[in-house]
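Hello support,

Our group uses your service weekly, and this is the first time we've seen a run hang past the timeout. The protein is glycine dehydrogenase (aminomethyl-transferring). I'm not sure whether the cause is the sequence or the server load. Input pasted verbatim:
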Amino acid sequence: MSMNTQGRPSAPTEAGGTAAHETFTGNKALQMEEALIFEIGRNDVCGVDLEEPEDFVPALGGHARRAELDLPALTEPEAMRHYVRLSSKNYAIDAGLYPLGSCTMKHNPRLNEKMARLPGFADVHPLQPRSTVTGAVEMIAELAHWLVTLTGMEAVAMSPKAGAHGELCGMMAIKAAHTAAGRDPKVVLVPESAHGTNPATAALLGYKVVSIEAREDGTVDTQAVQDRIAEHAGNVAGIMLTNPNTCGLFERDIIAIAEAIHAADGYFYCDGANFNAIVGKARPGDLGVDAMHINLHKTFSTPHGGGGPGSGPVVLSERLAPFAPLPFLRKGPDGPEWIESEAELQDGEQPFGRMTAFHGQMGMYVRALAYMKSHGADGLRQASEDAVLNANYVRVGLEDLMSLPFGSRWCMHEVLFDDSFLKDTGVTTLDFAKAMIDEGYHPMTMYFPLVVHGAMLIEPTESESRAALDLFIATMRDLVMSAQRGETGRFKGAPFHAPRARLDETRAARKPVLKWQRPAASEVQPQAAE
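Update from on-call engineer: The timeout came from a worker crash unrelated to the input. Re-ran successfully.
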């Protein structure tokens, strides 16, 4: 039994009865059980007092609801407790290191949140008259200025709502440029190391996706690109390449690849999801990139996850700038002008249309600009350097026990391992990841990128201290050695300490339960008289 400094047991033990002791409520001190809101909600209470409406004629006609709305209701304290209890079961960057690769789960400075909640930004409405939002437009213009400055590009489309939306925007600008030049190429080249949304975006726009295999070191070979261009001569619209790529490696031949694409009258789309590794160190425009989306919610620290919020502005080269979608910013004699309609266009401006109804994500803009201004140029550069340093620190700390598919070489902001170190242990990649949950860590990205079997992609970001990384590395080493000693009981069935046990993922995928159904009232059978 281990003791703390006061001589008390530091952990519950079977002997003390704490670990095995069952409670009446099912709660275990601060680890509280919480039922679904449908199970605890009632129809006779409400956290809000609503007056009975006066008589009116509904405008829905025959579409009006005929039955009561079967939604659960709670009192205000019950509702608050319900969601607080649920939040305590969710892993978050504010709770611990979040090693998801290719996702950049970094710390979100509270200063950014404070700025986003200023009334002039938080209360602005997209339907306000332009004369009432000049400050907001100036803020967006300043953010746009720094985005094009950091990337070395000519213009930026601010309205896309997220990364994949930005990809679509960039590729639509490329398609519009080809159409304006009287061309109609059908092929887009996509390396195997690109993000999965890249081929999906190209296919959505009707392009044929031609894959480019990764060479042995995990990067794209210029000759392979030239071979595909020759194979589809005159029919290549462009390439969609991620840099740094999904293997956590910088594409060292990117300038030569861009030159090959441009020589074939194609355009270079760069997936900017990994911009966090090169901000202040390399400008995509200098590398020959024509379009690149920027995940503001990843690179410039906005809380993200669960489907939002997000923002994916797209920076455009001089060749693509005229095709930026509406609305867009124009430099006017009296400051930035927000161009909303085709009637306001000037010569040379050829927007391909509109990506979204309004201007974009105001809160994301404010947070991103606050992050930039509080860091400054030197701070942004250091953030990139620290992100790369931390990933390599993890690599060096684990490379003697875990396997590196491309050898021990300098990586960028994320380090990629494969599962060959688990061979013949009886422990799978999934088992290993689930055991990490018991140790208090969210698992790393697994089975991605697809170019590596049993991939384990770790991105510590620049937010983590050396002490935090040391503990993470020590934990990973302990798990690896445990697996190699044959201690499969630690892994099979894990997690054991999470609020819920491991799901049957195969059954969940094949037979998902997508809607809660109220259970039928149980029928109590009367007992026969004796």
